[in-house]
Write a structure and sequence with these properties.
The protein is α/β, with parallel strands linked by helices and about 400 residues long. About 25% of the residues lie in helices and about 20% in strands. It has 9 helices and 16 strands. The protein has an 8-stranded mixed beta sheet with strand order 3-4-6-5-9-10-15-16, sandwiched between helices. Strands 1-2 form a two-stranded parallel sheet. α6 packs across α7.
């Protein structure tokens, strides 16, 4: 009990009454924790926010930084704004002991943010925790213009919708229902039903965010800020998903001495084109990435001064099971900077990417880049779609990535 001895008037009565009322409440006891394992429905999906649910993530120390950027005068407010900065989270194993020589830098795909690497939608351990357990320093970025790297340059970074729930269902979580390509019928690894109303899918769909339509501006800012990050942390492995694979390509071209290797989960840098179809029953494509793998200039040998210098060869066969590719006409120009960096692509056997990742792999090989292509089904890892790093066997795939980094380090 607390006492007030300084005043004997109405305030004392008020304070005493308040203190008595407070002491009438029972002592607080922390609720028991529950595992967020898939078998515990009370902690799956958004229900995992409950304090009773014990996180599955690895314990780590966390810091955040904004890297790069520049001051730009903004006369409307009579001051300066910062443009083009990159958001970076630094995660270090608890105790601060980093056992691995090369950090890992994670790049998210389109319509999501870096948080996608932390945990799965059903609250299982994500790739960040897997690699922290093994003594890596982990860096997770939000790319310029999205998430916590949203820019105050509103005209310079216009936004569009990232994805709808229906697109996610058709292309990512239950492609087998649409059956737009025959390999979709092999899909078994998404946790839960994969449709609207399922708590795991709802948690997944809630992560979608807008992305910029000014890809040129984003690529230029990611080059500058990304290389500045690597100059501060040293040579690193870059791990990307989907269209996030653009950025390791750009950094390999800009500062290859700082990239230990490029690890790309289903890279969406399809040469010269974007596909329509695979989420519907159609085939077809639209022009994209005029520099082959990118929207901005990369280094070719012999030099290419404009996209029109790249002579293209179009394979006209285009089927749902095997999409057509556009390569360079021979003799093909090489990519000497990008070729300095080892490259691996990982593709799930039930993903739309199994029908067209050969376009990325073969384009790079034609340009002189050493590429490993790991088709998960061929090494005994079955049933994966486009978001394999979130699916039920996600840590098995992370182990494949770790083994590749160790082989690469040895060679």
């Amino acid at each position: 009990m607390l006492w007030c001895l300084c005043y004997t008037g109405p305030l004392q009565i008020l304070i005493t009454s308040f203190l008595v009322a407070v002491t009438a409440f029972p002592a607080y006891a922390a609720p028991p924790t529950e595992s967020a394992s898939p078998g515990n429905a009370g902690c799956v999906g958004l229900k995992g926010v409950n304090p009773r649910c014990r996180p599955q993530e690895t314990a780590y120390h966390r810091e955040y930084f904004y890297i790069g950027g520049r001051y730009v005068p903004y006369p409307v407010l009579g001051g300066n704004l910062v443009y083009d900065q990159l958001y970076v989270e630094k995660l270090i194993p608890t105790g601060g002991e980093v056992k691995q020589p090369y950090p890992l830098v994670f790049f998210h795909g389109g319509g999501s943010a870096g948080s996608v690497w932390l945990q799965t939608p059903d609250n299982r351990k994500g790739w960040a925790s897997y690699f922290l357990d093994r003594g890596y320093a982990v860096y997770i970025v939000d790319q310029t213009s999205v998430g916590r790297a949203t820019q105050e340059d509103l005209p310079g970074y216009p936004l569009r919708i990232g994805s709808t729930a229906e697109i996610a269902q058709r292309g990512f979580t239950v492609p087998e229902l649409t059956n737009a390509y025959p390999q979709s019928q092999l899909h078994t690894q998404w946790p839960g039903k994969g449709t609207i109303g399922d708590p795991i899918f709802d948690a997944f769909a809630a992560q979608f965010i807008p992305l910029t339509t000014n890809l040129t501006r984003q690529e230029l800012s990611m080059r500058a800020s990304g290389c500045q990050l690597l100059s501060l942390i040293g040579p690193s492995y870059l791990i990307s998903h989907s269209i996030g694979a653009l950025h390791p390509i750009l950094l390999s071209d800009q500062c290859p001495q700082l990239v230990a290797g490029n690890i790309n989960v289903e890279p969406a840098t399809i040469p010269f084109q974007s596909y329509t179809g695979n989420a519907t029953s159609a085939v077809g494509r639209t022009p994209a990435r005029p520099w082959g793998l990118t929207n901005t200039k990369i280094t070719y040998d012999p030099p290419a001064n404009a996209p029109t210098d790249l002579k293209k060869l179009d394979n006209e066969t285009d089927t749902p099971a095997l999409r057509s590719c556009i390569y360079q006409a021979e003799p093909a120009r090489k990519l000497p900077q990008i070729a300095k960096v080892p490259y691996v692509a990982l593709t799930g056997e039930a993903s739309p990417h199994i029908t067209y990742d050969q376009c990325v792999v073969n384009y790079l090989r034609q340009a002189g880049v050493k590429v490993d292509w790991i088709k998960l089904g061929e090494i005994g890892i079955h049933g994966n779609g486009h978001f394999s790093f979130l699916e039920k066997n996600n840590l098995q795939i992370a182990e494949v990535v770790e083994k590749w980094t160790k082989r690469n380090k040895e060679t």
